[in-house]
Predict the structure of Aldo_ket_red domain-containing protein.
Amino acid sequence: MRTRLEKVYKDGLAKSIGVSNFNVSQMERILKIATVPIHNLQVECYLYLPQNELVDFCKKHNISFTAYCPIGSPGRFNFTGKDLEFKHTPNPLEDALVKKLAEKYHKTPAQILIRHLLQRGLSPIPKSVNEKRIKENWDIFDFELDANDFKQLNSIKNEYRIAYLDFFKGHPEDPLKDIRN
């Protein structure tokens, strides 16, 4: 698959090659054998799963970083009737610091979370089906978190995963095999 994607890129049919849900060791492996650089990595990344090691790796190798679930996927509870592993994950939209900063900057908690990722140099991709929230999610370019507020958000130590990628279980390339029970 990799060589076919590289051919598509070399033939000018693609402007870039991106990967999704890779961990650091997978990224290291692919960079060793790739003849075309990886341009983007897309993974779950939000306040409670900052992916610092992966972000640092991507910055070191000039790979852009796309953060999915940037506001913690608040609609996840209504997605399915199953008892999902992430069901008890705290909602970052309800985080006391996030709410305090939302008041300070006259923004929504979602806007604070998205702006925080943007200031980290990441590309957050929030999802919504609500037109009002879609507009709010883009209304983040008229303010910047000050250095102290940015540092406080970066210092949050919670680590909660939402996307367990269960479809990878048992696959030799499961990016989460090291953390599964």
